[in-house]
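Example (one chain per record):
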Amino acid sequence: MAAHITVMPSGHTFSAEENDTLLEAALRAGIPLSYGCSSGNCGECLARVLSGTVVRVRPHDYLIKEADKNKGAVLMCAYSAMDEVVIQAGIAGADDIPRQTIATRVKAVEPINEQVRALHLMTPRSQRLRFLAGQSVLLEVGGVAGEYYIASCPCEDRHIELHIRRDSQPFSQQVFAGLAKESVVQLTGPDGGFVIQLDSRRPILFVAWDDGFAPIKSLIQHAMSLEVAESMHLYWLADTLAHYQENYVRSLADALDDFEYTLLDGRADPAQLVEQVLAAHPDLSHSDIYAAGPAGFLASLREAALGRNLSILGWHEEVM
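Predicted structure:
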């Protein structure tokens, strides 16, 4: 029977199956609890049990001080919840996550269309990548490297998806020439601060330009796993690339009552595109916008959104 856990002071909640550690269950739910080694050695995942019962299910070498034990301190990587549990624990932000270097392996190279490949990587069982949705990583294989946005959710355990567009970059050429399954790809990262604001519950407008959909897809999945948005509306503008994962966004709209999407032709007049994005949103005073695309378009969209009462704190952009 699943146990229910609440994290304070953030208020996030998640469920854990029997013998799942608190840390494993939280990360699977997309909640970025602060941690280090995840193997009981560093003490970075120390948390305080405020109520409920936990039991140790994994060994750990980190020595918890007796005074801390008396206050309910446990390592989240070693303890499992037995019933309704409330813990006091830190939530990691973009600046809290260290850069990591991980030797991943190619799970698949998925041909989406002539211009885009989805590269699926797997990390080792003992070295999960710590990142937040919207961040990027540096990939290197065969002596060539390229920086790409992660398109998958932190809640997907060891699986990492990236969208590689066909261009003159050596890494892209390597992928399109044929990157064999099980090839080793060195990953370094994450980088960037284009991440979900965990303290907001406002409706979200997601705006993606071409393969700016990659970080936006990750943000959408993370927002869904955390249930942080009252509603979500995706606007995807395709200029040089097609709406290469249209079936995916259509499946979200079919499955979720609080998700809508609009596909737009990015070759239209920029002013017209801004108006098309904002036409259904005359008042943005209680909304957030996450937008990834070219600088000129983002500047115009930002100005127009602020003119519709969007708070400057509700504007989040990634120039691509």
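Caption: The chain has three domains: 3-92, 95-191, 204-319.
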